């Protein structure tokens, strides 16, 4: 690598803040990441080692964050191969998008410094694909893209990307991000020869990075200023800057940056005719360092400077020897540059045009070489032309053959699951549709099998994801053996597999018997993992049926097998009652489904035969992602329709399935038992008919309210009522405590048909509250956040301003206490008690 790329390792310092966590070790993790920011990577590593024995106490995301910091530190320490291997393993895991994009960006930088260009550009492409999910990290990815584009000669594109990144971070005001973006743009300007502009950016970078406390990037800025001054013929000034940068790099442990700075120090010493022996030692050491790392541009630069030094000392023989070494290294660097460009093109283009463009590039190089040879040796023009044509033809044949093999490999990869080698979900459905149509046309039976591993999550949690992957890989191999071309087998996703075959349910059952007989325990890292499978079978018995319906019925039979105890096969047509019979469970989705839904509730949703859902659109979409057959109860609502009629219609729909002996799960927004009519009604009805029914709690809006407003209801007490109930009944608020009025937008709506606020109802509510509270008493309009990316609404205003405020159907009115608590009369009964 050359000096231009060595400084690229500065990308390793781009580490964003961690996601919030409640574990007791979270402060230590944050400190480890902070030390990485401050370039104290050695101390960061020591703290990571200290946590080695406590890995089991960390969540998966925390372990991934810790591993990311460790791998980044390896890159800074120059252990690039270990870092790349580690990132290759880490990036195969599922992780939050924000951490994923950081890991891809850092890994791409390290791969580039290791000159694994295919891997570098592949990881860069992955990082760019995540940018829409984490726009805050877009500047970091743009900077990384700018750096790699500069390495393949796309300098204008590199400058454009860096400028876009700087514009984005300047709007955010994040000093550390601005520091990094200025470094990217300065490097891009330097590569297009705009040294003055680069110097101006470097000076600004220095100020911003110093303020942000980023020592490596501050040193990088000083290095850039010194290098620019040396290039402008001002070596005396440049020397001081670069020596300071070298010292900062060495103190921070950033080896690549320190060696780049030593080259410029030597260059300045030679130009000023000072400390020539020291310059010679620096260059000899740098030459050895860069040769060990096969960094040809840096080798060429060191050889050129040694030649200048030898000439300066009047030693032409040594000068000539070093110039030859510089020429050889430059030629090797040019070859490496061509390899980089080819790698870039191979990743950038995945169509036949890519192969043709690469073939043309190779042919043009060969023809250019032949043209130079022809110019030198005109007498061999005809022979050289024939040789060139033959070489070009051979090259094209080789490339076409290679393209054919690559297309075949890509086709195989696009149709197969990478872990098990079985067909992927799309191919199973495509080939299955053709086989299904043939079976219908020939009047032959057709059967679908859906199976998965029992307690697969527990396998992952107990033995690790490597054990889970090995179980999936082994099961995929056994499925391929027992199917043996007699059907279509593939992995549907996760631990679920689908098998389609022309045959009856009996044939499918026999196949599963052979599969179970073939299964055995797998060993991973010295651990023996035993597992079983459950399966559902459905034979097509309807000439008008569809493959999707057939697979769905097999999937439902799989759920029945799970519910009946696992490690068994259930046919869709089986009429025997399942263990325990039907029943009803009502679960809460919480206010934010992704954060609040419990594992038990998720299990109930997955295992139920029928799922009803009455939630917000976001939660509904997530439930239907788990259960595409989930029934949306929101369809029963209509503008102007009495909600009491809607509630009874929903009751009837749920109870119809419960009475049919089905295992029913009803999912309701928030806590299903808080301000909810239907959940309590259907549970009462089911129990009255002797049917098992229960409720799983959820996170309510009231629970979120206490957390978001920082209110402890135990301090002053709380009175919680529905607004219309308060307005139309003789209820007296406890002004010394907290008062919550729910569904305030619908105040006064006795028709139960309104969905929007009316000013008259709100004014009536205010008039009633003015009996106990002053008009200027500060109240709060609260709306819980329904997505992690949202903020709760907390609007403070005077009581008298309520009629003119904005409301949603779910807006809550929070009335803080008025005045101080009055103690019980000392002569009363409480005088003999003790304070709690």
TrEMBL record:
E.C. number(s) listed in UniProt: 2.7.7.65
Chain ranges passing through the membrane: 380-401
Domain annotation GGDEF: ranges: 444-574
Pfam families registered for this protein in UniProt: GGDEF, TP_methylase
Keyword Transmembrane helix set for record: yes
One annotated Gene Ontology cellular component of this protein: plasma membrane
GO BP: any one term: negative regulation of bacterial-type flagellum-dependent cell motility
GO molecular function term, any single one: diguanylate cyclase activity
Gene3D superfamilies: 3.30.70.270, Cobalt-precorrin-4 Transmethylase, Domain 1 (3.40.1010.10), Tetratricopeptide repeat domain (1.25.40.10)
PROSITE patterns given in the database record: GGDEF
Superkingdom as given in the UniProt entry: Bacteria
Catalytic activity: 2 GTP = 3',3'-c-di-GMP + 2 diphosphate
Enzyme class: transferase
Keywords of the record: Membrane, Signal, Transmembrane, Transmembrane helix
Cofactor: Mg(2+)
UniProt cross-references to SUPFAM superfamilies, sorted A to Z: Nucleotide cyclase, Tetrapyrrole methylase, TPR-like
Annotated signal sequence range: 1-21
Record-given protein name: diguanylate cyclase
Native species: Luteimonas wenzhouensis
């Amino acid at each position: 690598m050359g000096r231009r790329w060595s400084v690229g390792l500065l990308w390793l310092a781009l580490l964003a803040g961690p996601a919030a966590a409640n574990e007791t070790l979270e402060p230590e993790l944050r400190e480890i990441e902070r030390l990485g920011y401050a370039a104290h990577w050695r101390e960061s590593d020591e703290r990571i080692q200290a946590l080695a024995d406590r890995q089991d106490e960390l969540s998966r995301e925390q372990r991934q964050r810790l591993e990311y910091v460790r791998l980044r530190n390896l890159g800074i320490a120059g252990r690039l191969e270990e870092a790349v291997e580690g990132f290759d393993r880490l990036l195969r895991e599922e992780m939050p998008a924000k951490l994923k994009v950081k890991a891809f960006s850092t890994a791409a930088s390290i791969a580039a410094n290791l000159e694994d260009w295919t891997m570098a550009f592949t990881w860069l492409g992955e990082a760019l694909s995540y940018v829409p999910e984490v726009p805050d990290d877009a500047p970091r990815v743009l900077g990384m893209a700018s750096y790699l584009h500069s390495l393949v000669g796309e300098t204008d594109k590199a400058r454009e990307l860096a400028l876009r990144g700087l514009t984005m971070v300047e709007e955010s005001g994040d000093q550390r991000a601005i520091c990094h973006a200025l470094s990217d743009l300065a490097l891009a300007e330097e590569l297009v020869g705009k040294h003055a502009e680069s110097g101006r950016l470097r000076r600004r970078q220095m100020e911003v990075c110093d303020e942000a406390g980023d020592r490596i990037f501050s040193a990088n800025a000083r290095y850039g200023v010194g290098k620019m001054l040396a290039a402008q013929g001002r070596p005396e000034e440049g020397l001081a800057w670069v020596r300071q940068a070298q010292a900062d790099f060495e103190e921070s442990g950033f080896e690549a940056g320190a060696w780049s700075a030593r080259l410029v120090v030597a260059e300045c010493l030679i130009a000023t005719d000072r400390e020539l022996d020291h310059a010679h030692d620096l260059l000899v050491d740098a030459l050895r360092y860069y040769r060990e790392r096969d960094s040809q541009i840096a080798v060429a630069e060191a050889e050129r400077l040694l030649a200048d030094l030898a000439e300066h000392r009047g030693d032409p023989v040594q000068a000539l020897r070093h110039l030859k070494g510089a020429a050889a290294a430059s030629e090797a660097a040019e070859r490496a540059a061509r390899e980089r460009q080819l790698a870039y093109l191979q990743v950038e283009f995945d169509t036949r045009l890519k192969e043709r463009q690469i073939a043309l590039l190779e042919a043009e190089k060969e023809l250019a070489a032949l043209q130079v040879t022809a110019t030198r040796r005109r007498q061999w023009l005809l022979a050289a032309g024939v040789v060139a044509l033959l070489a070009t033809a051979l090259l094209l044949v080789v490339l076409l053959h290679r393209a054919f093999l690559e297309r075949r490999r890509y086709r195989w990869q696009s149709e197969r699951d990478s872990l098990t080698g079985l067909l992927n979900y799309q191919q199973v459905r495509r080939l299955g549709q053709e086989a299904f149509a043939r079976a219908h046309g020939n009047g032959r039976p057709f059967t679908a099998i859906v199976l998965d591993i029992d307690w697969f999550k527990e396998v992952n949690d107990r033995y690790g994801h490597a054990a889970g992957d090995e179980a999936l890989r082994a099961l995929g191999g056994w499925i391929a053996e027992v199917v043996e071309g007699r059907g279509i087998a593939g992995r549907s996703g996760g631990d679920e597999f689908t098998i389609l075959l022309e045959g009856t349910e009996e044939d499918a059952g026999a196949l599963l018997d052979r599969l179970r007989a073939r299964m055995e325990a797998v060993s991973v890292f010295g651990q023996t993992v035993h597992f079983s499978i459950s399966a559902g079978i459905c034979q097509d018995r309807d000439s008008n049926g569809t493959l999707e319906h057939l697979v769905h019925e097999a999937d439902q039979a799989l759920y029945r097998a799970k519910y009946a105890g696992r490690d068994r096969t259930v046919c869709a047509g089986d009429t025997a009652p399942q263990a325990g019979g039907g029943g009803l469970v009502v679960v809460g989705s919480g206010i934010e489904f992704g954060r609040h839904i419990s594992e038990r509730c998720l299990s109930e949703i997955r295992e139920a035969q029928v799922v009803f859902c009455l939630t917000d659109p976001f939660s509904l979409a997530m439930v239907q992602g788990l259960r595409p057959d989930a029934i949306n109860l929101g369809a029963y609502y209509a503008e102007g329709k009495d909600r009491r009629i809607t509630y009874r219609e929903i009751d009837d729909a749920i109870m119809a399935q419960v009475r049919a002996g089905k295992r029913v799960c009803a999912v309701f927004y928030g806590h299903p038992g808080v301000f909810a009519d239907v959940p309590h009604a259907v549970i009462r009805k089911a129990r009255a008919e002797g049917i098992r029914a229960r409720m799983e709690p959820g996170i309510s809006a009231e629970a979120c309210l206490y957390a978001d407003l920082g209110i402890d209801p135990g301090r002053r007490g709380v009175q919680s009522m529905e607004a219309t109930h308060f307005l139309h009944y003789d209820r007296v608020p406890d002004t010394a405590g907290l008062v919550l009025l729910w569904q305030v937008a619908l105040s006064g709506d006795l028709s139960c048909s309104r969905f929007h606020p009316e000013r008259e109802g709100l004014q009536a509510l205010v008039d009633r509250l003015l009996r106990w509270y002053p008009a200027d008493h500060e109240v709060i309009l609260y709306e819980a956040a329904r997505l992690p990316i949202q903020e709760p609404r907390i609007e403070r205003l005077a009581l008298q301003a309520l009629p003119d405020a904005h409301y949603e159907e779910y807006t809550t009115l929070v009335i803080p206490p008025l005045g101080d608590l009055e103690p019980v009369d000392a002569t009363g009964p409480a005088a003999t008690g003790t304070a709690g």
